[in-house]
Design brief:
- By secondary structure, this protein is an all-alpha fold.
- Helices cover 83% and strands 0% of the residues.
- Helix 1 runs antiparallel to helix 2 and helix 1 packs antiparallel against helix 4.
- The longest helix has 37 residues.
Amino acid sequence: MSSIFKGKKDVFHNLIAQQASLTVEGLDLLCKYVEAQSADVAEQLSLKEKEADEARRILIDELNHTSNTPFNREDIFNLSRSIDDVLDYAHSTVDEMEILNVKPTKYIQRIASLLKDAAYEIHQAVLRLENNPKVTTEHTQRAKALENRVEHVYREAIADLFSGPESIEHIVEMLKMREVYRHLSNAADRGDEAANVIADIVVKHA
């Protein structure tokens, strides 16, 4: 496995690792936001998302100018995209909460915490990909298990939304909350997708 990362090819591993690291930092900011709803934290998350977008743009530029890559070009592109999407959905969650004036619930806080843990596992999987594929696989399995837990909490949250009083006010609030929950669920889906791509890379280069 280590032989596939040489010279110029290290660029892709480093850029994906950078994206994964920025995503961990972004999810940590999401957790802080849903605890206190600080405008300053929201701005920090927005800047982190822009920084991650720049890392992805550089990676795509490198892909366009490099013929010899450490693993399948499509896998590189898809892994970069799915990691980027996790942070994008974290950012859009905060945007929606601010625009719709949504207050954090226990479900939002639980999901944000699980997403941060999953982002950590993805980051660790990427870091271990070069030299420790078995350890990488363990991290991807943990990331996927965390995604399953997110979906369980998401279903609990949706069920709770529909259990409230039947009034116009509740329906409006329900629609707002469902939109926020949807962004969080999408973030988990993209994390699961990233874990799957990493697992595929390990199998292909075993």
